[in-house]
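Holo prediction. Input below; ligand is calcium ion.
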Amino acid sequence: MGKRRSLRPPTAPRLIVGGLLTALLVLAPCGSTVAQTPPIYLDGSFEDWVDRTHLTDTRWRGNPDPPTINYMEDIRTWYWATVEGQSFIYFMVERWPKPPSEVGIEDPVYYLVHFDMNVNGNYQEAIDRVAVLYYDPRPLPPADNAWLKVYAGNDRNTVLYSAQGRWGEYGVGGSTQYWGLKVEFAVPFAALDYEVTNPQRSLSMYLAATHNIKSDPRFDYCPNEGDITWSPVPSLGAVLTLLLAAIGIVVAYRSFRRYLTPA
Ligand SMILES: [Ca+2]
Ligand SMILES: [Ca+2]
Ligand SMILES: [Ca+2]
Ligand SMILES: [Ca+2]
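Structure of the complex:
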């Protein structure tokens, strides 16, 4: 019996086990890569955003009719990310350079990330949030140049969370070293009540930008229409990976035991 087992060609179950083992070998490094998401540093430099999820927004120049917004608030790209083990949603926004010379921009801008925490299409409820980021490239380094405040969707008077830092590019300042186009910031899950209000672990959001938030504000939006729904914590993916790995190990172990035990 032992000889027959060792000589006969692989049977379908063995092929399956072999496939699972191969999948495990392939999945294991992937799993560790996912677990060790590269960190994001709020340091005003942006190499940490390469290859992350983002949307590219249209430029108002070239659109028909007089532009409704100014170059100061013209969103170019909007990045968002989470990092394994960190309770923040990280964002990075880049605006288009100043036309027509395509240089940097020294003027400040407001970026508003609107969160629909219960994904019902209404962003104005107490459960919802808006994160308002004020970015002013004019202060000279090492002064802070970005200020963040988080409010409830129905109350712009009560600050639920605030933070500030050197999160943006500094202004042009006669140098080509600084551009005033990019800024990064982070919104903590706690400020969103994410764990409590969001058992389904998904939310919707969109970005708005304006250089004049107080009177007659005009906004550029990203995306131009609608919003984005996503799950900041990909818990299902992690659980599924672990589950698949566990099943693979059990099947492989049983198969090897059967193979090694004389019939
Ligand atoms: Ca950074
Ligand atoms: Ca734009
Ligand atoms: Ca809502
Ligand atoms: Ca837009």
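The mean pLDDT is 79. That is the main takeaway for now.
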